[in-house]
Amino acid sequence: MTDGLAVELNDLTRVYGTVKALDGLTLHIEPGELVALLGPSGCGKTTALRILAGLDQATSGTVSVGGRDVSRVPANKRDLGMVFQAYSLFPHLTVLDNVAFGLKMRGKDKAQRTSRAAEMLELVGLSAHTHKYASELSGGQQQRVALARALAIQPRVLLLDEPLSALDAKVRTQLRDEIRRVQLEVGTTTLFVTHDQEEALAVADRVGVMSQGRLEQLAAPADLYAHPATPFVAEFVGLNNKVPGEVSGGRVAVLGSSVPTLPGSVASGRGLAMVRPESVTVTADPAGGATVSSVAFLGPVSRVYSTLSDGTVVGAQLSSSAARAFAPGDTVRVGVESDGVLVVPPAS
């Protein structure tokens, strides 16, 4: 078990010519916590990770690890483990020697290196592949070796930069869960950078959504999903219907229901309610005023799309067994059941 260290990024800016990659980023990560930074390409998440790693330097602001300012400390003196999207394994070394490489650089004797590397390979489920070379492993296995190598040096902070994006969907899900299991077992403070919202929500204690170099919201996954703080977060995390509604007294009248508005919503008057598909209800009703336009089967769940009388298309996510009751052309009533929605200004 490793004692993770607290990490603090304080008011970081990073300017490349006329581009501001980071715009006053402040982020505190608790010891042993896994925080995922989520956002589209160019939002600054990888820049933040590289500055924490010491691979890039902030234009202004400070980085501290365990209460120590490391802003001017070289990367190799920061006691960090890193796993990149590219596995970066040495092709001429066996799996065991790849994992032991960082220990060799730190002057550990052969017995210590071998013992620690074997322990890490067992942790990631690769004990049977000790003497193979990288070319003999699948992509998922190679990424496990990269993770074992990063953990072998017992880093107090682990940095993961899009570590799963080169893998196919099934392997990505398996390895995502494996990373979380290992991180919890080892107790390393971890910053995980990804553009994949499902990945971030599945592994993190808290998720930070970034846009244009700024942190839009930092919250536990369930909180972030249910209570987006800004229109950008609502749009980026999960699917949303944008349905016209009327706001008054902290509630919005939408789809025939009255629903509480979330902080940051339009204060009064017309707006667009951001309604999650799973909050939409669909009921067979000859006088319902909406028509089913299509049904999309997605395995255990399906999406039923209905067109309202004003032409707005609303998607509802139902169990596939419930969705079988509906077919294109059916007349239905569409409603909403939610403990809060974000209402944004109507499109200009």
Automatic annotation (TrEMBL):
<keyword id="KW-0813">Transport</keyword>
<dbReference type="InterPro" id="IPR003593">
    <property type="entry name" value="AAA+_ATPase"/>
</dbReference>
<dbReference type="InterPro" id="IPR013611">
    <property type="entry name" value="Transp-assoc_OB_typ2"/>
</dbReference>
<dbReference type="GO" id="GO:0005524">
    <property type="term" value="F:ATP binding"/>
</dbReference>
<dbReference type="InterPro" id="IPR027417">
    <property type="entry name" value="P-loop_NTPase"/>
</dbReference>
<dbReference type="InterPro" id="IPR008995">
    <property type="entry name" value="Mo/tungstate-bd_C_term_dom"/>
</dbReference>
<keyword id="KW-0067">ATP-binding</keyword>
<dbReference type="GO" id="GO:0043190">
    <property type="term" value="C:ATP-binding cassette (ABC) transporter complex"/>
</dbReference>
<dbReference type="InterPro" id="IPR003439">
    <property type="entry name" value="ABC_transporter-like_ATP-bd"/>
</dbReference>
<dbReference type="InterPro" id="IPR050093">
    <property type="entry name" value="ABC_SmlMolc_Importer"/>
</dbReference>
<protein>
    <recommendedName>
        <fullName>ABC-type quaternary amine transporter</fullName>
        <ecNumber>7.6.2.9</ecNumber>
    </recommendedName>
</protein>
<dbReference type="GO" id="GO:0015418">
    <property type="term" value="F:ABC-type quaternary ammonium compound transporting activity"/>
</dbReference>
<dbReference type="GO" id="GO:0016887">
    <property type="term" value="F:ATP hydrolysis activity"/>
</dbReference>
<keyword id="KW-0547">Nucleotide-binding</keyword>
<dbReference type="Pfam" id="PF00005">
    <property type="entry name" value="ABC_tran"/>
</dbReference>
<feature type="domain" description="ABC transporter">
    <location>
        <begin position="7"/>
        <end position="237"/>
    </location>
</feature>
<dbReference type="Pfam" id="PF08402">
    <property type="entry name" value="TOBE_2"/>
</dbReference>
<dbReference type="InterPro" id="IPR017871">
    <property type="entry name" value="ABC_transporter-like_CS"/>
</dbReference>
